[in-house]
Amino acid sequence: SQKIEQNSEALNIQEGKTATLTCNYTNYSPAYLQWYRQDPGRGPVFLLLIRENEKEKRKERLKVTFDTTLKQSLFHITASQPADSATYLCAPRGSGGYQKVTFGIGTKLQVIP
Amino acid sequence: GAVVSQHPSWVICKSGTSVKIECRSLDFQATTMFWYRQFPKQSLMLMATSNEGSKATYEQGVEKDKFLINHASLTLSTLTVTSAHPEDSSFYICSAESGSSYEQFFGPGTRLTVL
């Protein structure tokens, strides 16, 4: 069955540093991979989508890489801020319409001032 | 940007009653909507996939007669928890996907507490 692993349940980093979160997947060949942010008691907020033919994608301080050989995606937040503290979820997805999205448990990021 | 709303944001009900949760895409047409359930400190678990005008596809282990899903229009899907019991208490979240992109946009969630 499909399995998604995110590197750790919690990651603490100092403000200003780069946070790197890992998402590994097995028994799956997604065409897309999405990253979301979730704050406690709230629904996930879409951040970035990267396609299988894209190696890297950037949006402001965020960068996502997608390595289909390693079956891994890395999510980077540069110049991290306390406001970046949240749980980050990765979600691989197949191609075509009506595809369900499976979520990992997420990595809880804490940026320490 | 794409906005998805849910109503109500929280609900408390007695055991045995039914609860309806609405999910609306406010500024785009959603060909597909998804319903998730999330227990504390756990991942989002997909319950069902709903396509406008057709029957929902339920995930294994999700009782379709207990969790009724209706996707009557391109902007509205509803989830009805029938004969709710305390073990149904959870955080229910919907998401909507437009036909033009594969980005999923989530609602803010509905906290259901069954006494």
Any idea what the radius of gyration of chain A is?
13 Å
* Unreliable residue stretches of chain B: none
Assembly form of the protein: heterodimer
Give the low-pLDDT segments of chain A: none
Query: How much helix is in the residues of chain B?
Result: under 10%
Describe the sheet with the most strands of chain B: 7 strands, mixed
Helix content of chain A: under 10%
Structural description of this entry:
The complex is a heterodimer of chains A (113) and B (115). Chain A contains no helices and 10 strands. With 113 residues, chain A is an all-beta fold. The model of chain A has no long low-confidence stretch (mean pLDDT 89). Chain B is an all-beta fold and 115 residues long. Chain B has no helices and 11 strands. In chain B, the strands form 2 sheets. In chain B, strands 2, 4, 5, 6, 9, 10 and 11 form a 7-stranded mixed β-sheet that branches. In chain B, strands 1-3-8-7 form a 4-stranded antiparallel β-sheet, with no helix packed on it. The termini of chain B are far apart. The relative contact order of chain B is 0.33. Chains A and B meet through strand 4, strand 5 and strand 9 of A and strand 4, strand 5, strand 9 and strand 10 of B.
